[in-house]
Amino acid sequence: MIRLLTTKLIAVVLLGVSALNAxxxxxxxxxxxxxxxxxxxxxxxxxxxxxxxxxxxxxxTVISGGDLSIExxxxxxxxxxxxxxxxxRLVIVLNGHFAHSASDxxxxxxxxxTPNPISLNYEGLSLNxxxxxxxxxxxxxxxxxxxxxxxxATTGGIQPGLGDLDIPQGVFVARGTPVDIALTVxxxxxxxxxxxxxxxxxxxxxxxxxGYISDASSLSAGGPVAGGGTPEEGYWQAVLDxxxxxxxxxxLNAWPNGAHAAEAQAWLDAQIVRTPEDIAREQEAxxxxxxxxxxxxxxxxxxxxxxxxxxxxxxxRGSRSAIAAWQRDQGIExxxxxxxxxxxxxxRMARAKARELADEAxxxxxxxxxxxxxxxxxxxxxxxxxQGLRRYLRNYPDGLxxxxxxxxxxxxxxxxxxxxxxQEKRVWEQAEAQDTEAAYQDYLNRxxxxxxxxxxxxxxxxxEDQEERKAETAAAxxxxxxxxxxxxxxxxxxxxxxxxxxxxxxxxxxxxxxxxKAIRQFQRSRNLPVTGYLxxxxxxxxxAEAGR
Length: 548
Hints:
The longest helix has 39 residues, at 340-378. This protein has five domains: 24-224, Rossmann fold (3-Layer(aba) Sandwich); 231-271, no CATH class; 276-349, no CATH class; 372-466, no CATH class; 470-547, Muramoyl-pentapeptide Carboxypeptidase, domain 1 (Orthogonal Bundle), CATH 1.10.101. The protein is elongated, with a radius of gyration of 29 Å. The protein is 53% helix and 8% strand. Residues 1-24, 38-44 and 224-229 have low confidence and may be disordered. It has helices at 45-57, 70-83, 120-123, 127-135, 178-189, 196-202, 231-242, 245-254, 261-271, 276-286, 291-303, 317-330, 340-378, 386-395, 402-419, 422-434, 437-446, 453-468, 470-483, 487-499, 513-525, 536-547; strands at residues 26-32, 60-66, 90-95, 98-100, 105-107, 125-126, 141-146, 159-160, 171-176, 208-211. It is of the alpha/beta class.
């Protein structure tokens, strides 16, 4: 998933300024999307390819792609993650459609569905994520965002285009038309000796810059030197522009005996005070939490009702906000960072919550099964009454007797079919073969009181329900796909369902009709959205109830 890249690549060295050349290794990500399935293209992906070529000529290691699908975007980001570790400068160029909420903006792959708050977490590339990555290289990281004219359909409070970006200190962001953005990267910002401020001034009027803008920083090999002089002088000028502890210490690491070493040390001695947040961050870092430990913390927080925006073992903004909210509710110092004792408390609370939820689920499951059995008898379904069987399936589509009810109805249908006149039988068989609203409606128009009129109405209602929930089902399917479970992982899920008393069928790692039914039964008894797919909340509840 996209959030695989949220590994905090925060280096001790200032990644912030530079007149140094690219020998430490510069990395660029370039994506140009044109062939959107649902929206008309208003720009050219090949322009992004031109920007990629210019970056390669400038010495960057370029990871690029055009018209990338969701899966293609994930693979490209995986390549970027592999090359980020020791990279000096970072340039990201994105030409394509964007969408935003009040808290984040996303770059959209070409096969993204109509953006909504759920699907964006799995289909879109979060700009908050990219800005977090860029923040680890203040003064040496830039994002270029090409925005096509026109909008696209969005739902659930999501808006087309870019929202307000919370740009970290030392990060440069430029936005403009896709063509101008792609051209200006190679022509202006990679020009020999061009600083960010000078390059922005030379760029077309459509290109708007924000964030860190200084001629002490450059994207080109060799870089500018503010006011002339040596690379050290250019570096020092940028350090003064940024003016924080990380910048000063980076200068001292690069030039421990430099011309401004004493000045940098004096600045540190006079102004640097470790804040409570610094102390909390260091205490958590000292715990050396591995990815699995962080995933368990995210699971615990999610189980307790705190949204971490993903369970990926990476503490991004969502996880930090969830930790802070939990700390606030517990009446302890709010920092967004965890101490060992807090992790233990969180684990105890989550275990207690899991037991509580499991007991509640068992009670509800028993109540549902008792009501199911009673309805089976009271409706007349148990006696084989056709109307009773239909009523039962409408109320309990995944009920204890659903399979029996369907078999009995099929037997009744077969009997009717044998007694039908040839013409009505042919029309009904065509409707069943096509299985569309139009086909069933055509049968009802011809035979409003026909032998299969009730069957047609039942099927029409199911198709209408499926259409209404199409977006929700697609988002749930995408959420399950993002888990990328193999047969072994799926078999573990089946084992957990069976352990909780829900029959998934053979424990073979194949999610067949019976498995989907079991997932729906589990979701229904836990008051979760009933989709039949493994959403985040479904997996958290399964893990909590079966594994604790």
